[in-house]
Amino acid sequence: MQINEELVTQITHAILAQMGQDAEPSSKPVPSMAGHSRINDEKTSYAGYPKAKQGTDPKEVVIGVGAAFQREIKKTICGIPLDDVLKNIKAGIEEEGMVARVVKVLDTSDVCFMALEAAKLSGSGFGIGIQSKGTTVIHQKDLYPLSNLELFPQAPLMTLETYRKIGQNAAKYVKGEQVVPIPCENDPMCRPKFQVKAALMHIAETEQLDPELGIIEWEEE
Amino acid sequence: MSYIAGVDIGNSTTEVCLAEIPAGGSLRFLASASCPTTGTKGTAANVHGIQSALKQAVGKAGISMNDLALIRINEAAPVIGDTAMETLTETIITDSSMIGHNPSTPAGAGQAVGEILHIQNLSNAAAGTPYIIAVPKEYSYEETAALINDAADRLKITGIILQADEAVLVENRLRQKIPIIDEVSRIEKIPDEVLAAIEVALPGQSVRMLSNPYGIATLLGLSPEETRAVTPIAKSLIGKRSAVVLKTPGGNIHENVLPAGEIYLQADQSSTINLDEGADKIMQAVTNAGEIYDISGQPNTNVGNMLSRIKKGMSELDQSQNADIRITDILAVDTLAPVLISGALAGETCLEKAVGIAAMVKTQKLPMQEIARILQEELNTEVTVAGVEAVMASLGAFTTPGTKLPLVILDMGGGSTDAAVITDGGHVSITHQAGAGELVSMLIETELGLGDRHMAEQIKKYPLAKVESLFHLRMENGQMSFVDESIDPRFYGRVVLLAENGLIRIEQDIPMEKIAQVRREAKRKVFVTNAVRALKTVAPGHDLKNLSNVVLVGGSAEDFEIPEMLMEEFTNYRIVCGRGNIRGSEGPRNAVATGLVLSYLGERR
């Protein structure tokens, strides 16, 4: 087949014409950030919530959730309700005979630091950090922030099954048992596909931070 | 001034000893080196391994290959060890009559008997009948608990079997505490309305009622004939933390004895032994046989195929016409292999009886001259084939400080265990016996169900530890060891091997004590049996009491526990036994290579 400049121009025109047609009927008002400096104008105040206590129960696993968790953000990046995520992690911990406690971390939105802070509050020294978009880390209190026990970075590929197993593994660390590697999907296209959404969710979470309050007990239903 | 090298080609390693002989002066050792043997021992493929070992040695000594005046290679004994394994029994479940497995977290404790009722039929249940409820994973723990709590007033529910891993979750939500077993993957296979018994053991214990035939009989109300039939069920539930036994009319478990075949010994005292009589009987027959000319197996049986496979492998080495290849020794070892039970419901395994066999294959002569010729052409150095391996090994071993004549050596390698005695008068008698390091690896691999020979080799070689936290590990001898830098989380809670360059993780979830026990037993079964056997053959009057010094050499003598095992064993015979230290510096390795260099001096005089 011969390709000349004229043909290319023709095709381009045809496509542009078609796109123009498609765009017109669906030209609903697109939500715009113009004029806004925040994603959620309102900032939730957690003043009055009890400050998270240092745990003493050696069977305890503390789950540190993100600032926007179950409030501004109700679903993970792939649409799993955060209520179910939390429920499954707690079920995993319970099945292994350990005890779960949930705190909300308001002084950082970095998942590794969140997990480490949760671990430091935990009576067993083991904690889980979950960002509202679904990224999860299992951490131990005397490790460096970035050298965690287990990191599940591809939030869009997580399922409730995975969250259950994360809970179980965290509890197994407490018991000093051999953990089972959690099968995870891996998709190289995941990052480009979800990058924008991930960034927006992270901003929405970060702008809810309230470092003055630090970490609070979180028993949202 | 001239440089000479001794080269020892072994079943698994090629070793080199390099020495310098100044004109008129006395010999000085320069360097030693070792490389894995390339190809099967005694074939032209060995040349590559020899060359790289030589390169290593001349490199260490700081001379060049061209400086070598003479290379002496050993007259390798034409014996090759090979190993094989056969299972002798198999367990088959028909009509799903048993589930016994180790879910990590069952709930409740105790036994329960009842009719199996799938949860979807809960509404059809009759009051008064005891039930065990089977729940597929579609029901969440909340639903399950709610349904059972509801029904509890109406029905008599004695136990629960779950498909999902949710036993503790369900138990925490039940008003009534009953034993619950989970992770039964093929729950749909459990028939409705049959009588079943379940048992969950107390923490730290294993099931007691269901691993006892009379226990099963008590719970399920069996007749004496039926009780006899459930014995294999009880046997396969020993050591489990939870179990289910179903009473199905046609259901049963068979323990089949596989037709393992007979072994024919062609010897001074020819005999025939059936493989399923066990290793002890086989070894007894081998001992009583006198000199063995050949060993073969019943055609078209497991053992027959195994032995002919070993011979066939050897015949590919010796290409000469009417090659005379014979198996002159075997070592049989009883073992247990975890085998998946056919018809199982939750991936249960059963320890089946098996026998591991190492065979010693003898051929006329290995083509060592051929190796020497190729080496001579490639290196442009004179290469000679010198001396019988065992004699050379004795010479080398004699350089161990503290030895004297008469000297006995026990050369424990990868494929064979050899022994030699040099008397005061310089008379040498030798023997080659089947079974050494490779058989140990095979036993470890099978008994632990690893399916990975490399891992088994490593378990054989390195001591164990358990990573108890990221900052400390417990060694297999109970000692605690703390580390400054945190251990990689990949090792958390795992049993690891302490290798020279870091930790090696064992993937399987097997307790450290069990691994250590299997490893020690495997070494004991092979090396202690073989050492006693080999030394009896060479000892004057075939009596171990006539020996006084035994020097252990060869790769397996480097092991961290085999020499101690042998030492303990030989103390009973008042034999001084210890790991050799060739030239006072090489440890138990390099005996043959050193002997080759030393023998050159002897020849020159």
How do the strands and helices of this protein lay out in sequence?
The complex is a heterodimer of chains A (221) and B (605).
Chain A: H1 5-23, E1 60-65, H2 82-95, E2 99-105, H3 111-121, E3 126-130, E4 136-140, E5 150-152, H4 160-175, H5 190-206, E6 215-217
Parallel strand pairs in A: 1-2, 1-3
Antiparallel strand pairs in A: 2-6, 3-4, 4-5
Chain B: E1 2-9, E2 13-21, E3 28-36, H1 46-61, E4 68-75, E5 79-87, E6 89-94, E7 98-101, E8 110-118, E9 130-135, H2 141-152, E10 156-162, H3 167-173, E11 180-181, E12 195-200, H4 213-220, H5 224-229, H6 231-236, E13 242-247, E14 252-257, E15 262-267, E16 271-274, H7 279-288, E17 292-297, H8 302-315, E18 326-340, E19 349-362, H9 368-379, E20 382-388, H10 389-397, E21 407-412, E22 416-422, E23 428-434, H11 437-447, H12 453-461, E24 464-469, E25 472-475, E26 480-482, E27 495-499, E28 502-505, H13 512-538, E29 549-553, H14 562-571, E30 576-579, H15 591-604
Helix pairs in contact in B: 2-3, 10-15, 11-12, 11-13, 13-14
Short description:
The complex is a heterodimer of chains A (221) and B (605). Chain A has one domain: 3-Layer(aba) Sandwich (Rossmann fold), CATH 3.40.50.10150. Helices cover 35% and strands 13% of the residues of chain A.
For this entry, give a set of tags:
heterodimer; A: 221 residues; alpha/beta; Rossmann fold; 5 helices; globular; B: 605 residues; alpha+beta; Nucleotidyltransferase, domain 5; Ribosomal Protein L22, Chain A; Glucose Oxidase, domain 1; 7-stranded mixed β-sheet; 5-stranded mixed β-sheet; 30 strands; 33% strand
| Percent in strands of chain B | 25-35%
Distance between the termini of chain A: 64 Å
Oligomer: heterodimer
CATH fold call of the domain at 95-253 in chain B: Glucose Oxidase, domain 1
What's the gyration radius of chain B in Å?
Answer: 30 Å
Secondary-structure element string of chain A? HEHEHEEEHHE
Task: Assign a percent range to the helix content of chain B.
Answer: 25-40%
Say what the CATH topology of chain A is.
Rossmann fold
Cα(first) to Cα(last) distance of chain B is 17 Å
Derived structural class of chain A: alpha/beta
CATH-derived architecture of chain A: 3-Layer(aba) Sandwich
Mind telling me which CATH architecture of the domain at 95-253 in chain B this is?
Answer: 3-Layer(bba) Sandwich
